[in-house]
Amino acid sequence: MRRASIAVLGAILIVLLCADWIAPFPYERQFRADVAVPPCRPYRLGTDALGRDRLSRLIYGGRVSMVLAPLAALLAVALALLAGLTAGCLGGWWERVVTTATDLCLSLPWLFLLLAARAMLPLNAGPATSIVITFGLLGLLGWAGPSRILLAAVKRHQRSDFVLLARSEGCPPWRIALVQILPNLRPVAAAQFWVTAPAFLLSEANLGLLGLGVAEPAPSWGNLLREMENLSAVARNPWIAAPLVALVMVVSCFQVAISTGDFEA
Amino acid sequence: MKDNGESGALRLPFWRAALGRLLCLALTILLAAFLAAALVRVAPGFGVDERRLDTRLSESSIRALDAENAGNANLVRYFGRYLSGLCRGELGQSVSFGQPVRELIADRLGLTVRSAAAGVAWAWSGAAVVTLALGILRRRAWELAATVLSGGLLCLPSAVMALLALYLRVGPGLAIGAILLPRILRYLHNITGAMTRRPHVLAARARGIEGLRLVTRHVCLPASAEVLALAAVSVNMALGAAIPVEALCDSPGVGQLVWKAALARDLPVVVNVTVLIAAITASANLISDAIRGAMRREA
Amino acid sequence: MSSGGQSSAERGRAAVSRGGEALLSVHLSVDYRNKPEVLREVAFDILPGEAFGLVGASGSGKSTIALAILRLLDMRGGAARGSICFEGRELLNCGEKEMRRVRGRQIALVPQSPASALNPALRLETHFREAWQAHSTRPWKEARTSVRDLLVRLELPAGEAFFRRYPHQISVGQAQRVLIAMAVLHRPALLIADEPTSALDTAAQREILGLLRGLSREFAMATLYISHDLASVAALCQRVGVLRGGRLAECGAVETVMGADARVGLVASGIDGFIHAVNAS
Q: CA-based Rg of chain C, rounded to a whole angstrom?
């Protein structure tokens, strides 16, 4: 099951990466004569209120979300690894600083933290800047949860027999951290990545629906969902829900990959 | 303290632990407040007082405004002022709403607390019923169905759930409950699942104990510490869910306030509400820790 | 067992004063965080090139002494008081940096439980390279040949394929030899072997003891051999100390401590042949 879901995710990612070749039209191209038409040729999913082809925007938006959410997750896990490893190996006041920072980050509801951080930054930035801001914030703020788990793993490994052996050989502490402990953190870090990436996809969707995500005209699955604000219209024209269907499919693949995987806590 | 040395020795550490925890809570809030003040201070647009642009003001009034703002230039003095204002309950002035922040929060906090509490109650009731039913029935098919259903709901962004709630015309409390339900159900399922695999449960079943008695006394009761921790986390989740629910369902609570303020880059509102929420969630964690500590001491 | 007016520590030290300068001179008490006085006034000496055995029941504090000598008790939450004099230097006064120069280079440890002592995420070559680079500035490529020779000496495969294996891909016996090879890499003056044969069957035990004996002769290495198994101690060591209740109850030559009766007991149980086999290798 796990392999199948990872294969599906990989296939979707490859399709979305080829957006420039697969999408029928550029995402910002407006067909003023064909505004808000239902699915027909050449608009497979119809057009939106500004006359832009929905399928093209779905594909380009998917490229943004599916590439950047995992990248942001990588950033978050990398930061968490750095924090956890240094805190666990150095100990003392540095460990206390990291633990306090983690607790502070985790004490706030995630969306509150995102909103507060987003409000600090300019809102009328261009689409490219807003993409970097949105996913950069996710990566920079999402380190706290994985860091707690990684710190616990580091402290567990520090008490292990192979670290005792390395110390008895006279290895310096930084070498023990990098060569002995870090490779053993790989499964934990991988598990955290698989949990964080879909969480970031959903967070970006929430930010997009609230108007604080990627700026127009650049599409992302988050801001494409804004069309769904009028649910009665969606009931009449179900193809509007295509981004939601895509999002649910991708997140459930991640879920299957997590739940059936062998992850060491 | 009692004369009886044993119970006296038991009492003293509890108060000391509670005091220590309260101190940590105060320090956390202080740190959050300092960060908040620093962020407002360094954000672009600080120090530009819109009141200066009012042509009706006289020269002397403008000079008074300038003198007031000059005091804010130094970060430490600014934080000092912010803290003293915080103690007096003055949280600054909202840029976009044109009202004192304290008034804005006071008007809206009650609604959010009621919605969040209702949401937590709905979610926990639903999750408890499903978990108990699954524990008593112990059918793989039902467990699979529950896992698939909660998994499906977890794939929906909270904002979409809020839209569904708006479409189905249910209140914000039920909407928050619907967002929380799959998460709490999953955690509860993991906790009880781990407890069910413990040897004491097998021993209880070997003695012929089944059904509700097995689930409540031998599975849920030993897991009460983790369940309490989950309760504190659910407060955190409910407050987070309040933002999309109130924003999209047009419910005038603190969640909608912070959303509108974020859209308008109204930092005094955003930052003060964030500190308030941090205080609430930190307090919830503190209470949960204290109860768990007391339970451990009695065990 | 032996009797007499002197304490075992005094008798042990008397033996040293008759011989030469002690390589290691220990006089220790150890406390753990939740268990005070795990070891009380344990005192013994080890001469250069000598094999000294330390026996005791499980939990009598044998491994604690190994950790204490290497100043690694902090990893298990313990603290040592007293004196550890190695080559005329007081180890308890050394800083961490100084101790790092001693560990692995002058005093080496062969830990218990080969299964958990090797890092499951690293290949065997990385293990050797780390042990090598802790004390040598020569590049690893130069050292590989001498390490291969050492592996052959320890009856391990010396090919490229063995170097690239992970710890879970080799047997327990091979893992034990790998640990011994890593320990003698820098030709330490003292080798502390903490229950090196407890995880092995009798045949493998015999081989390991033979290897230890051969290596200590070849490298002029003193050995502190810690075990709960009297037979292997009798086979390998010249002197032995017996730990009981946190104290060193007996200390002296193997024949004296174990006594003629014990010797008879060993013969009767057929272990005598085992001892001869080890002595012959």
A: 19
